Amino acid sequence: MTDRPFIIAGAGIAGLTLALTLARQNRPVMLIEKRSRIDELGAGLQISPNASRILIELGLGPALSRVAGEPDELIVRDGKTGTTLAGMAQGQAMRQTYGAPYWHIHRADLQTVLLDAVRSEPGIQLSFGRAIAGLEQNDTGVRVHTETANGTQATLEGSTLIGADGLWTRTAALLGDASEPRFTGYTAWRATLPMEEAPALFRANATGLWLGPNSHLVHYPLRSGRVLNIVAIVSDRSAEPGWSRPGDKQSCEARFRHWAEPVRALLSHIPEWHIWSLYDRPPRPHAAYGRATLIGDAFHPVLPFLAQGAAMAIEDTAVLARSVSQHDDLATAFKAYVTQRMPRAARVQQEARFNGRVYHLTAPFSWARNFKLKNTKSADFARRYAWLYSHQA
Ligand SMILES: Cc1cc2nc3c(=O)[nH]c(=O)nc-3n(C[C@H](O)[C@H](O)[C@H](O)COP(=O)(O)OP(=O)(O)OC[C@H]3O[C@@H](n4cnc5c(N)ncnc54)[C@H](O)[C@@H]3O)c2cc1C
User: Fold this and answer.
1) In a domain, 80, yes or no
2) 378-384 contacts, C-beta under 8 A, 24 or more apart
3) Which ligand 1 atom lies nearest to the CA of residue 312?
4) b/e burial code for range 253-266 (CB count within 10 A of at least 16 → b)
5) Cβ pair 166, 12 in contact under 8 A
6) Are both 203 and 148 inside the same structural domain?
């Protein structure tokens, strides 16, 4: 193998985790990030055991445990009546069943832990404010053309390019796949609230999931219970591509005006929302192209209805790093990685889409869903996720 660096485009969760994983294998890494700094706005992430075990194996367990929380349980409620429909134990039960925690973590805290670990690795060169703009490759390496916001261009020499540049990936286009994600008809509204301002029902150390017609709401505590994270997802006609934009408080409350009183009370306390139009696409079949490949959302975005997008990105990094250590030839390693990840990513995407449809059912179908949930024992409900959380990437 060559000493030229592995060039990674994008320092999101996928890129940072991969840089760290490769550095731990003593491989030189150059991590290129388009933004001039990482500034995550207030939002939470659920990191399930299939991903937390990988972060723990990277030695991040102690740092993450200091900033992540473990919910005691998941409670599913009917959004219109407030009735509890189903639930399952999380916390200790997850650790016992899957040997790893189910974490709730602020996105900024996860990025900070990853970034600190990346910065402490002498083998990783980190460059902010530089976007991947072009690629040439031959049998021995790659030349990656980059560009800063003020138009300064540079060419980097590496052994490979790995695109961790998210849903709107430039790397995929450079590999010959310019197909675009499509709008799903869902919009996510996200907010955080100081916990003392939240109505009492929302202060429990639990993941709350409320299901209503054409909409659902998820909430959970962050930062040792000081902050409540709220995600409200509604079916929508119009979309705006990109990361997030400010949301209008009155429009959000209008969408939930027929919901149970506790939800309306919660929403009335939220001063500021951020909106994401949700886009989707199947995994990119040509994600391995010679000495270049894709990971995370660039390869296979996952709708948030299973809380698995970041988890899949983290799984990718483990499989990719192993494949690289098993094959001397990078092109072969990348093909093997894509072949291995394709079915898992496709299944997780499908299950997430399915959840979205079920969560948003309207009457009379929602009555059947609620009846079924009410008659599902907690242990049976938990078993539905075993295939997902027990996975050892
Ligand atoms: C509402 C919502 C809730 C979610 N909740 C969860 C959850 O609970 N659990 C979970 O696991 N997942 C969740 N997800 C999904 C998760 O956020 C994403 O799957 C994850 O952030 C993808 O990480 P990534 O590193 O692949 O991409 P990104 O986070 O998009 O990072 C890509 C990086 O590449 C950079 N970049 C872009 N173009 C270039 C370029 N040309 N050159 C260099 N750099 C570039 C970007 O600036 C960015 O930093 C949620 C998503 C949404 C929308």
Assistant:
1) no
2) 378/86, 378/87, 378/88, 378/89, 379/88, 381/86, 381/87, 381/88, 382/88, 382/89, 382/93, 382/97
3) 11
4) bebbeebbebbeeb
5) yes
6) no
What is the CA(40)–ligand 1 centre distance, in A? 10
Q: What is the 85 CA–ligand 1 centroid distance (Å)?
A: 31
**Ligand 1 atom, smallest distance to 299 CA:** 26
Residues with CB under 6 A from ligand 1: 9-15, 32-35, 45-46, 131-132, 164-166, 170, 188, 190, 231, 276, 296-298, 302, 304, 307-311, 313
> Which DSSP letter does residue 196 get?
G
User: Residue 40 is part of a domain; what is its CATH number?
Assistant: 3.50.50.60
Q: Ligand 1 centre and the CA of 258: distance in Å?
A: 33
Grouping H, G, I as helix, E, B as strand and the rest as coil, residue 2 is coil
Q: How many CA atoms lie within 13 A of 65 on its CB side?
A: 9
Contact 56, 100 (CB under 8 A): yes
Its pTM stands at 0.96
The whole domain housing 222 covers 182-280+359-389
Residue 166 CA to ligand 1 center (angstroms) comes to 5
Give yes or no for a contact between 104 and 207, defined as CB atoms under 8 angstroms apart.
yes
In tens, the pLDDT along 137-169 reads: 998 999 999 999 999 999 999 999 999 999 999
81 in a structural domain: no
Whether 202 and 262 have beta carbons less than 8 Å apart is answered as yes
Count structural domains, the chain: 2
Contact 190, 276 (CB under 8 A): yes
Q: Give tens-digit pLDDT for 165-223.
A: 999 999 999 999 989 999 999 999 999 999 999 999 999 999 999 999 999 999 999 99
Q: Which atom of ligand 1 is nearest to the CA of 243?
A: 30
